[in-house]
Design brief:
The protein is of the alpha+beta class and 366 residues long. It folds into three domains: 210 residues, no CATH class; 84 residues, no CATH class; 71 residues. Helices cover 60% and strands 8% of the residues. It is built from nine helices and seven strands. β1 and β2 form a beta hairpin. The longest helix has 44 residues. The radius of gyration is 25 Å and the shape is elongated. The two termini are 41 Å apart. This is Phage minor capsid protein 2.
């Protein structure tokens, strides 16, 4: 039985919410520090003097985030491994195999957990530096705008805060050299780790019972990188590739099976990349029906447009939080409604897509 493609996202959300809350709190800290005394004399000098105090507060916030995120990520990885084992057991029971729970290879799961936690911890110094840069840049822009007679200090500060709220804390780069925002990077990293742990639990359980073949699921609206692997049969061990004869699980005879490669081969070619929604399930010769791919390029494009609209909603919600005057707050609120309306229209046009309101939120911090 394959892992539900959305399960990794649901597990990862437990961690990404921590980062969403942290980013929201960070924006509010910077906003409040900038807004304090902004119409008074010597504002810029006071703001420069308060930088170290702000840095200390943010550093403490990030230390708490690091501890909470590490603990929650570790729980997520072990939960995912257990889910993978449980779903493999369902496959085995359907095949009439007496199920025994394979002992969790704790060391292997700990490695996955450590590999997932590492990039999250590496984010934190970047966040601290970015926070100081944003604060200093906002003070500098607000001061320069007034000196040049271009803007009032409040307007210039608002423009600088808008830039921050529009893009979030960025600078997290993956192996493909793509830049990610803080929350999105955390979700990607944990979803990838959870998926890897679930697959590891799944194949470990199958291998414990002598099953070596798995089949790749059909994931609607798959990306071009994964499409060639949909419905393909893979070998866990890599010992059987090409056309092979194997014993049928439904009769005393043998059946010919086309094995596209090993699980490791498929992963090396891009299957189960970060944010991939494909899963593996036991292939039982003579019993398992290979799924026919149902996705289309148009479906993939429509899903990517949904993600773009969700990001737009989050961006303007952050702009609303970062507002230091009523006019900016009203503009941001109207933009949120505009992007939400565009998303609703998009979902009407593409009824196969489902609205995921959690992806439109910017955190729970108050």
């Amino acid at each position: 039985m394959p892992v539900d493609p959305g399960f990794g996202e649901r597990l990862a959300r437990r961690v990404s919410l921590l980062f969403a809350d942290a980013e929201l709190s960070l924006l509010r800290r910077i906003r409040d520090a900038i807004r304090e005394g902004i119409d008074g004399p010597h504002w810029a000098a006071r703001k420069v003097g308060q930088l170290e105090q702000l840095r200390t507060r943010i550093d403490l916030d990030l230390a708490g985030l690091s501890e909470a995120a590490s603990a929650e990520t570790r729980k997520v990885i072990f939960d995912a491994f257990g889910i993978g084992q449980d779903l493999a057991s369902i496959d085995l029971e359907r095949a009439g195999v007496e199920v025994r729970i394979a002992p969790a290879t704790r060391a292997a799961v700990e490695v996955i957990a450590a590999d997932t936690i590492r990039p999250l911890k590496e984010m934190l110094p970047v966040v601290l530096r970015a926070s100081q840069d944003i604060y200093q840049r906002t003070v500098a822009d607000a001061s320069a705008g007034v000196l040049l007679g271009v803007n009032t200090r409040r307007e210039a500060a608002q423009q600088a805060l808008n830039r921050f709220a529009g893009h979030g804390v960025r600078g997290f780069v993956d192996k493909s050299r793509r830049s990610w925002a803080m929350e999105s990077y955390a979700e990607m990293a944990v979803r990838t780790g959870a998926g890897k742990a679930a697959v590891e639990g799944h194949v470990t359980q199958l291998a414990e019972h002598g099953l070596d073949l798995v089949v790749v699921s059909d994931a609607p609206r798959e990306c071009p990188k994964c499409r060639p692997w949909e419905g393909k049969i893979l070998s866990i061990s890599g010992g059987a590739v090409g056309s092979v004869e194997v014993a049928s699980t439904t009769s005393d005879g043998r059946v010919t099976v086309r094995v596209a490669g090993s699980v490791a081969d498929a992963r090396a070619a891009g299957l189960q990349h970060p944010n991939c929604r494909h899963s593996l399930s036991a292939f039982l010769p003579g019993a398992t029906r290979v799924p026919a791919p149902t996705g289309t390029q148009a479906g993939y494009v429509a899903q990517q447009r949904q993600r773009e609209l969700e990001r737009g909603i989050r961006k303007w919600k952050l702009r609303e939080v970062g507002a230091i005057n009523d006019g900016a707050e009203l503009v941001a609120r109207a933009k949120v409604r505009e992007w939400q309306a565009a998303l609703r229209a998009h979902l009407v046009e593409h009824p196969e897509l489902k609205r995921q309101t959690a992806r439109e939120q910017i955190g729970r911090a108050r």
